[in-house]
Amino acid sequence: MSSGRNSNEKLVSWLFETNAVRVCPKDEPFWYTSGTIGPYYINTHFLYGSEEKANSLLKIIDEVKDDKIGCPQKILELVTENYNNTAVYKALIDELCAFLLEKFDMNEVDCISGGERRDWFFSLITAKMLKKPHLTIYKDLSAVISDENGTRFIDNLNGMKVLHIADLITEASSYERAWIPAIKNLNGEMKWSVSIVDRNQGGAQLLERNGVKPHSMIYVDYNLFDTALIMGLIDLDQHDMLLRYIDNPKESMRQFLIDHPEFLENSLAADERTSQRAKLCIEKDVYQLR
Fold it and tell me: Are the beta carbons of 51 and 262 closer than 8 angstroms?
């Protein structure tokens, strides 16, 4: 695999190229659904090639996921076709496979898993390339296993050691709610987790408390945005806002709203989605501005 620095630069360029990471213009933070604001969006699944391609695959997943046996093969066919036709996705999957081969003795890994829905963008094709069975986990905690013998329901993993691949880890709530219990219920053990992006919001610590060793290809931290600045993907004003946000998400955005009182006023007068989020922010007094 390429050196850490070179690899990091490639990942950063792919994240920005596909809009998987979007940084707001100066003094125009994004509204999040929770009624909070912040300077960036992360949609790791856009690394599939673009927002349009990623949304198209999500739509197909929603159409086929009720056919639990047929779903993994259908998705694998689509992601394999995309791998063969989309340079950025191919490069990412190749880098992910190299990352796994560097970090793990793959002889110790019995199975690769991925959870509904976005994990499947990355887990299915990686399992295929590394010649490992794939455990497709659904939100209702049911699971099917795919290998050279096809796909079937499984009720006992017989102590299999599982490596879970995720698109993004934030607080790891889906691991705690679904993926870890699903594997445990089947008499397997999730030993490792590899995410494409770790938002550095406590997910890795939660995994460690659950006996899972966390790894990520890239972290949302100073290093990510320092690299983006050096590469000319963001400017100094954006970089400054991002670093203040990473230091203290709530206090940095509270200070922004104090310094820019017109931002809330403009948001309330904007489109419905924005105004609803601004109203939520005011009603909940998220930033203690009263």
Answer: no
Cα gap 43→51, rounded to integer Å: 8
The 3 state secondary structure assigned to 127-195 is HHHCCCCEEEECCCCCEEEEECCEEEECCCCCCCEEEEEEEEECCCHHHHHHHHHHHHHCCCEEEEEEE
**Do 238 and 199 belong together in one domain?**
no
- Do 214 and 275 lie in one domain? The reply is no
pLDDT tens for 170-186 read 999 999 999 999 999 99
8 A C-beta contact, residue 25 and residue 174: no
CA–CA dist 15, 22 (Å, integer): 8
- The pLDDT score that the predictor gives to residue 5 is 63
Q: Reduced to 3 states, what is the DSSP secondary structure of residue 82?
A: helix
50 within some domain? no
- Entry field: residues in the chain: 290
User: How many whole angstroms separate alpha carbon 272 and alpha carbon 207?
Assistant: 38
Whether 93 and 202 map to the same domain: the answer is yes
Domain that holds residue 28: 1-42+221-290
CATH number of the domain to which 182 belongs: 3.40.50.2020
pTM here is 0.94
Angle at which helix 261-268 crosses helix 272-283, to 10 degrees, equals: 130
Looking at the fold, whether 33 and 96 belong to one and the same domain comes out as: no
Task: Report d(CA 285, CA 163) in Å as an integer.
Answer: 41
